[in-house]
Amino acid sequence: MERPSLEINLPDTHEEGKLYVVDSLNNLNKLNVCSDRPQHVVDEEETTGGTGENTAGSNIRNQSLFFVTFILTLIISLALVSFVIFLIIQTRNKMDQLSSRLISEKKTIEELKKMNNMILKHLNQSGIKE
Q1: What is the mean predicted confidence (pLDDT) over 9-28?
Q2: pTM score of the predicted model
């Protein structure tokens, strides 16, 4: 004869236990709401504008508000990252322009030095002859 296994799958049982506790709490909450029905209905109509919305509608509204906020945050983050990338590219282009300008000015300075040396040589030669 086989004995039934005494092993319990703890993760499944734990999850089922959570669901059972949540269901029990929901049932208890419903009982409390039903016992205070006249005052609760008046309070709910005042807060919801008489539409009779329940907490499920409020949860959906909160979830959609969270989703919209999340999407807006992502869009703003994307815009900021794009702006930073744009600034990096612009800075690199300016640095390239500055580097090319410095190289051309260096060549110009070297040419001026050569001309200065030629002029000095010419002045020295003409000063010796006089």
Answers
A1: 64
A2: 0.43
